[in-house]
Amino acid sequence: MTSQRKHIVCSLLLLLFITSHVTAFEVNVTQSDYNATVNHSITLEWTFPTNTSTSHDKTSIACDVIAEQKSYIVYQAVGGVEVPHTQDERFSGRVQSDTDALREGRLILHLSRLRTEDSGLYVCDVGTNHGGGSAVTQLNVTPITPLTVKVTQSSYQAEENHTITLEWAYNSTGSAFEELDVHCSHLAKPKELVLYQVYKGVERPEFVDGCFSGRVQSDTDALREGRIRLHLSRLRKNDSGQHKCAVRTCCGYGFALCDLNITAAVHRPTERPTPSPQPDTGGRTGLSIGLIAAVVLVLCVIFVIVRMKGHSDSQSVCNSRTRLFQRELQVRA
Ligand SMILES: *[C@@H]1O[C@H](CO)[C@@H](O)[C@H](O)[C@H]1NC(C)=O
Ligand SMILES: *[C@@H]1O[C@H](CO)[C@@H](O)[C@H](O)[C@H]1NC(C)=O
Ligand SMILES: *[C@@H]1O[C@H](CO)[C@@H](O)[C@H](O)[C@H]1NC(C)=O
Ligand SMILES: *[C@@H]1O[C@H](CO)[C@@H](O)[C@H](O)[C@H]1NC(C)=O
Ligand SMILES: *[C@@H]1O[C@H](CO)[C@@H](O)[C@H](O)[C@H]1NC(C)=O
Ligand SMILES: *[C@@H]1O[C@H](CO)[C@@H](O)[C@H](O)[C@H]1NC(C)=O
Ligand SMILES: *[C@@H]1O[C@H](CO)[C@@H](O)[C@H](O)[C@H]1NC(C)=O
Ligand SMILES: *[C@@H]1O[C@H](CO)[C@@H](O)[C@H](O)[C@H]1NC(C)=O
């Protein structure tokens, strides 16, 4: 008989001894069943009556799981002291209990890094110096299924200062909106910048990075239909790069990426309306000649005005202007 086996037998005998000499009491489960997913954690809880007149009530606990028609020790405590080495190795380092809560009549088992094989019936025996009893609860651990998240467009191109709508779609079949987590970010270097965050169906703008504050709007109606639509406004050149949206529901996780390319705004002169474009090159040449002639004319007029300033009348100015204009046309012809 190995020392571990001996210990288990001793502990059980001790527990039996404690419980057999006292009256039975009712141990209750706070939930008759628990559902969880792989890699998550869960807290199982039992309650039992305490004796308020004895301050140092020594409680002994033995919790087993019955799975695949076998029984495994999940947790043991004798006289309020944990007995970790009797625990089955499959639970090693994954079970935590609160011994202080025992004094309040609460048995709390916190199971972490859940596996599908943790599923089963959890039976806990409680023994105190004023009574004993047991209760059972069921735990179901379901595997995480990959959640399909898709981009409706894999790359987007937009101009600086414009607005763009990025869109993702996910398949939330069989999951409540209240369990939906969405995390969208710009995979910028050196750090990821959060642009949109939903936790348990509620938008959390406080997690959005400062450089996106006031620039991102989401379509919450679309979100309920499985579409993430983000309107990103006042685009900056450094918004360029990969953008990721990750979705987590009760039972799955997935993400998709899209590329955003923000190009510099094309400078458009605003001081003067652009001349209407000419359809053919012949017309354009004619226009250029006309424009040059007009400019030369204006310069000449100014020159003549300056030269004749003070000793000429308006008639001579008009003549000079006509003459100069005619000469210019001869040169061009
Ligand atoms: C756990 O899942 C089962 C089956 O889907 C359901 O009937 C039960 O109500 C769930 N329990 C809890 C506590 O959510
Ligand atoms: C669970 O966690 C482990 C380690 O963190 C990881 O390797 C594994 O892929 C996870 N499994 C699932 C289904 O998420
Ligand atoms: C256990 O449940 C029974 C019946 O619901 C109740 O009378 C009793 O007070 C409960 N005990 C504890 C310790 O919660
Ligand atoms: C509490 O403990 C005292 C002393 O051991 C005992 O006399 C009393 O009957 C106990 N009360 C209950 C409710 O068990
Ligand atoms: C969503 O997932 C379910 C179950 O995996 C599948 O039956 C259904 O066809 C999927 N719907 C879409 C739109 O992909
Ligand atoms: C992006 O550019 C804006 C100015 O256009 C600047 O304020 C901001 O800090 C830049 N963000 C990053 C992450 O470089
Ligand atoms: C962004 O778009 C411009 C203009 O079409 C292109 O020249 C450039 O290569 C693109 N950059 C990336 C990173 O795709
Ligand atoms: C973008 O908008 C800001 C503020 O409206 C303006 O100051 C800036 O000149 C604009 N940039 C370009 C390239 O148009």
TrEMBL record:
Entry annotated with the keyword Ribonucleoprotein: no
Pfam families: V-set
Membrane topology annotation: Single-pass type I membrane protein
Protein name listed in UniProt: Uncharacterized protein LOC114435379
Record keyword Cell membrane present: yes
Gene Ontology biological-process entries: cell surface receptor signaling pathway; cellular response to lipopolysaccharide; immune response; negative regulation of T cell proliferation; positive regulation of T cell proliferation; T cell costimulation
Species for this entry: Parambassis ranga
Annotated localization: Cell membrane
Transmembrane segments: 286-306
The Immunoglobulin domain, residue ranges: 48-142, 153-263
InterPro entries in alphabetical order: Ig-like_dom_sf (IPR036179), Ig-like_fold (IPR013783), Ig_sub (IPR003599), Ig_V-set (IPR013106), T-cell_Activation_Regulation (IPR051713)
Keyword annotations: Cell membrane, Disulfide bond, Glycoprotein, Immunoglobulin domain, Membrane, Receptor, Signal, Transmembrane, Transmembrane helix
Lineage top rank: taxon: Eukaryota
Signal sequence residues: 1-24
